[in-house]
Amino acid sequence: MARAPRTTARWRQTVWGELLSEFLGTLVLIAFGDGVVAMAVAALNQSGRGEQIFAASGDWLLIAWGWALAVAFGVYVAGGISGAHINPAVTLALAAKRAFPWRKVPSYWAAQLLGAFVGAALVYLVYHQAISSFEAANNITRGTLGGTADSTPTFSIFATFPAPYFGSSMIGPFIDQIVGTAFLLIFVLALTDERNQPPKANLAPLLVGLAVAAIGMSFGANAGYAINPARDFGPRFFAWLAGWDTVALPGVHGYMWVPIVGPLIGGVVGAVVYDFFIRDVLRARGVPPAPDVAARGETVEEEPTGVPSEVETKGRTAREP
Fold first, then answer.
1. How does pLDDT run across 253-283, given as a tens digit for each residue?
2. What is the span of the domain harbouring residue 184?
3. Per-residue model confidence as pLDDT tens digits over 190-225
4. Of 36, 196, 255, 303, which one has the fewest beta carbons inside 10 Å?
5. What is the DSSP letter of 170?
């Protein structure tokens, strides 16, 4: 006779297990994503390993590949439980177009934001001496926006800002965030569509990371390719608490809303575009799911009873009907 689960472990079989997964996956994403920017901005040049920061394409490649690996490992960490959305825009798009339960959306968003905040705090814990050293060496006053003491370079370790060529208009960055996130969802849905040449041997998380690298290298300069509201707002809020003041909140020209609203819209747009051009065509042609793709895991049941019941779909890794 099988032994019943310990009472202390039953909560892990509920949605709380999924939220822990989203929290840790997003924490990993930010710890390694913001971590690579901290390396490029402050740590390398203050450690005697180079003096020039953001040497255009060189450091941008370091950052793009660092964020790519951050995404890949965040997805590998959390994918088996929650599907590793680790992005409110992904969660919203899956609720809108993949039957992800709407009632879970607010709690997933909260877990993602908290994970992003803690990830940023971890980066600051590790690199605050390097950041302070860089600020002192370059006469930067933390919290100053504009002028010779502008603290935007060190703030950029944590969150994004628009390129100066947009002036005070946020229309360009807003469009940029919609487009970048739409591409992200197109790639994510393509890579997890069992009817559309899905990757095998559990390569999907790595390829999602490569998709983020492609977006960063092709669409990153305009606004820093946040393409993830939690990735931007969680660290932005931490930076505000850590002394970056109005540079963080509300940001230059009130920028803080752009990497929140833009990705949420862009994610749904990307899902609609993918379904119209690809998924619906595959289904109309009767293309069956690939037979040699490893079965995907089930989500936890909300109220485990020991009796088989209808299992809800799991984020972006859910099997299509």
1. 999 999 999 999 999 999 999 999 999 999 9
2. 14-294
3. 999 999 988 988 999 999 999 999 999 999 999 999
4. 303
5. -
As a whole-number percent, the residues of the chain with pLDDT over 70 amount to 85
CA distance 216 to 234: 20
How many domains does one find in the chain? 1
The reply to whether 198 falls in a domain is: yes
Length of the chain as a residue count: 321
CATH assignment at residue 235: 1.20.1080.10
Q: Tell me 22's DSSP state.
A: H
306 within 8 A of 2, measured Cβ to Cβ: no
Report the alpha-carbon distance of residue 245 to residue 82 in Å, rounded.
34
Q: Which two tokens mark 162?
A: 């628009």
Scan for tokens 């202390």, then name that residue. Answer: 8
- Dihedral Cα 202, 204, 207, 208, nearest 10 deg: -140
d(CA 308, CA 3): 17
Domain for residue 320, yes or no?
A: no
Q: Omega of the bond prior to 5 within 30 degrees of 0, cis?
A: no
